[in-house]
């Protein structure tokens, strides 16, 4: 039988493996949109089942450790954090698939210029994802706080993209279908950033035992 500490390390490593798959899925989903690359899209769809299976296995392992090991405070916080991060990672994988579905539609539609702002929004979201996961690995509260502070920039850029797209759809009827698809892409990129924020909040709970879900003290 494995020692409790070994199982905790296994859980951490499994979460990091899942995180790597999710980061790759997000990157590929954006490439599918921007480059109109069906190969990138298919790779995301191919890996979806693996991410979902890892979510189930990680959840089962975490639940078993909570039920059988009677962990002390620090380990209890880690296991609680693991459950939340596991769920966020699975949802991020789902969002990457949703972006790919929009990308496949966009490949059959006319190109409209506001697409150029999607890579910038993707860059911000991907940076938040990467930093939130790095904060988890390093147990770095300052890096986690930097993720929370970046959230407003993502919201602002998403709103700017919406405004651009609405104007383009007003100007040309043929822009409506691709415009709507790009609005959904922007929305899903913003939701990815929200999940990165969730992970950052979990890191602060894990490291400092504080609940910052409303971010009040972060912005002071």
Describe this structure in words.
- This protein is mainly α and 220 residues long.
- The chain has a single domain, classed as Up-down Bundle (Methane Monooxygenase Hydroxylase, Chain G, domain 1).
- 83% of the residues lie in helices and 0% in strands.
- It is built from 6 helices and no strands.
- It has helices at residues 4-34, 38-69, 73-106, 118-138, 141-171, 176-208.
- The model has no long low-confidence stretch (mean pLDDT 92).
> Which H/E pattern describes the elements?
HHHHHH
Which structural class matches the secondary elements?
A: mainly alpha
Rounded to the nearest angstrom, the distance between the terminal CA atoms is 48 Å
Largest sheet: none
Which ranges are low-confidence, i.e. pLDDT below 50, for 5 or more consecutive residues? Answer: none
**CATH fold field value:** Methane Monooxygenase Hydroxylase, Chain G, domain 1
3D shape: elongated
Overall mean pLDDT: 92
Count of alpha/pi helices: 6
The CATH homologous superfamily is termed Phosphate transport system protein phou homolog 2, domain 2
The CATH class is Mainly Alpha
Beta-strand content estimate: under 5%
Total count of strands? 0
- Fraction of residues in helix: over 70%
How big is the Rg?
19 Å
Protein topology:
Blueprint: H1 4-34, H2 38-69, H3 73-106, H4 118-138, H5 141-171, H6 176-208
Helix pairs in contact: 1-2, 1-3, 1-4, 2-3, 3-6, 4-5, 4-6, 5-6
Features:
220 residues, mainly alpha, Methane Monooxygenase Hydroxylase, Chain G, domain 1, 6 helices, elongated
């Amino acid at each position: 039988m494995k020692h409790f500490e070994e199982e905790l390390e296994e859980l951490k490593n499994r979460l990091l493996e899942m995180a790597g798959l999710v980061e790759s899925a997000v990157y590929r989903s954006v490439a599918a949109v921007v480059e109109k690359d069906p190969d990138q899209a298919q790779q995301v769809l191919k890996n979806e089942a693996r991410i979902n299976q890892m979510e189930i296995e990680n959840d089962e392992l975490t639940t078993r450790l909570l039920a059988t090991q009677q962990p002390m405070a620090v380990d209890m916080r880690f296991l609680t954090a693991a459950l939340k991060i596991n769920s966020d990672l699975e949802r991020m994988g789902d969002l990457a698939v949703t972006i790919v579905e929009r990308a496949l539609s966009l490949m059959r539609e006319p190109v409209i210029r506001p697409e150029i702002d999607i890579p910038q929004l993707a860059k911000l979201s991907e940076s938040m994802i990467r930093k939130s996961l790095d904060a988890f690995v390093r147990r770095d509260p300052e890096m986690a706080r930097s993720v929370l502070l970046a959230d407003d920039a993502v919201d602002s850029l998403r709103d700017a993209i919406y405004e651009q797209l609405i104007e383009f759809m007003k100007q040309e009827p043929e822009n409506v279908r691709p415009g709507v698809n790009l609005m959904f892409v922007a929305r899903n990129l913003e939701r990815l950033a929200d999940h990165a924020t969730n992970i950052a909040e979990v890191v602060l709970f894990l490291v400092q035992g504080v609940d910052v879900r409303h971010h009040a003290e972060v912005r002071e």
